[in-house]
Amino acid sequence: MTDRIFIRDLALRCIIGIYPEEREKIQDVILNVEMDVDSHAAAAASDNIEDAVDYKTITKQLIAFVEDSSYNLIETLAERCAEICLAPAKVRRVIVTIDKPGALRFARSVAVQITRSK
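RE: above sequence
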């Protein structure tokens, strides 16, 4: 049985991009995460945080990491975020989507989505 934890629309700012003007000032990115876990056997049964995936801790790690990052590509940023999400033993698989609003003139945003598993 697979359960999912979602972190939706985490609005962050970082240096991201390949062009000189993108390297000079921080830009907005929107992070969405889906983590596959099995909470039925442990967390749901015990109602104890020690048996659950602590999504607050993961979110704090993501915020600190992204806001201190400086990558050329959102693909690289997504990969590093996936590594953070997969660190807890109870997370089996993660889907990370990063939107970069305003990257293209006539588009609301550009996004990259990756899926990683243990």
